[in-house]
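[Automated response] Your request has been received and processed.

Submitted sequence:
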Amino acid sequence: MTILSDIIDFNKDFVQKEQFKEYATTKFPDKRIVILTCMDTRLIELLPKAMNLRNGDAKIIKSAGAIVTHPFGSVMRSILIAVYELQADEVYIIGHHDCGMSSIDTKTIIGSMVERGIDKNLFNTLKYSGIDMKDWLRGFNDVTESVKSSVDQVRNHPLMDRKVPVHGLVAHPDTGQLDIITNGYEFIDEN
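Generated structure:
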């Protein structure tokens, strides 16, 4: 048995028993919010429960470290689509303590890539093509500063509606406690 076969077997039973019905909702978030958070496994069920969210309440974007790495990358595109197309009226950037992105070692990751068969000469090609692996794979030293940086990127994005509050929070991955880093309501442009 593989993990995939286990998933497919469960899924057949799930669909046959119509267990999906309890999750029925629309593509529009009921609480009209979009959340960018980390892909950490501890947050999968904990964070929505800690925020009193049910299926259909929010758009949730997951990425390593809840970091907005590029102003025109897929994370920022997803946030903008949630705001302009999917009726999200607020943005929440939620990092967490004990994040794996706070201890990223680029050399170790590249070493793992080479061990799994990636040609080490490829990294020279990437370097000469303008791809700085250390920058591309970078994490952060301080989750609070990382959340502030991502909030600033979203809030000050040239395509972001200035009336949309962009909040920054840090979650504790064991308890779900949320600490406000920046309250987006304090920065709304009323004009």
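Summary generated for your ticket: The mean pLDDT is 95. Residues 25-102+141-185 form a domain with the Beta-carbonic Anhydrase; Chain A fold (CATH 3.40.1050.10).
If you did not submit this request, please reply to this message.
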